[in-house]
Q: What sequence folds into this?
């Protein structure tokens, strides 16, 4: 797995209010986003706000059963460059004994994604997203060039 | 506050084991780090592992009192370019009604740092770190040029 992070997602109780906080209080500008999520482009790293229940569903977890430490209130994602890369990353993780939370599979938003847990149970998504481009230096571009 | 993230910190129970997981299982290489923390350079974004208790102390919170959702098992940091920038960011946050978790102050590692909470209680540190350089494009360089 290349040494980079593509997206960080914070779980939120009320998407509209959470988005308004980052826009009005912090002063950031959201990228045009589907209604069920809010994306902010932090210079090639995607920062996203996503309802807590949807987040739990995404990783096949009950809303309050995703492990200690409240690790389900956020998620880190590494976007691979292809489906084959996702599979290769999971092969290695499995071989090295990492806890796989969800085997990679085709997902509703058109991508291919799985989850693993780090040593403390923090969830990492590893995904291939055909709508985004991973630039050579590892940054994410949300608009196809 | 410029639209960028400088560091993401995950709270860990055992620093040595957590670091070994990212090195041996994920396959990443840590940057030379002080013994009490582990840094990984993700291309201008610093990923760090830090003991949970130290994290709570850092933001003046009891280890289990930092709000719902386990928001204390991770922290996001925005590194400003100067102490004055940190103060200006907190002035705006205060004026806009954000919850300030810790007013900015000189801290033991040589920097100047404060914390605020977003709408859901997720903690953000805003810091000036004299040991790191913020490049023009917002990426962090951990070695002085």
A:
């Amino acid at each position: 797995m290349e040494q980079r992070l593509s997206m960080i997602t914070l779980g939120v109780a009320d998407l509209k209010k959470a988005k308004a906080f980052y826009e009005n209080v912090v002063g950031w500008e959201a990228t045009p986003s589907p209604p069920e999520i809010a994306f902010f482009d932090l210079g090639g790293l995607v920062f996203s706000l996503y309802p807590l229940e949807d987040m739990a569903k995404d990783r096949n977890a009950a809303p309050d059963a995703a492990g200690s430490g409240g690790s389900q209130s956020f998620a880190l994602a590494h976007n691979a460059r292809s489906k084959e890369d996702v599979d290769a990353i999971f092969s290695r993780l499995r071989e090295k004994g990492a806890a796989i939370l969800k085997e990679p599979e085709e997902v509703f938003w058109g991508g291919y994604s799985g989850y693993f847990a780090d040593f403390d149970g923090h969830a990492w998504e590893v995904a291939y997203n055909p709508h985004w481009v991973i630039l050579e230096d590892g940054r994410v571009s949300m608009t196809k060039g």
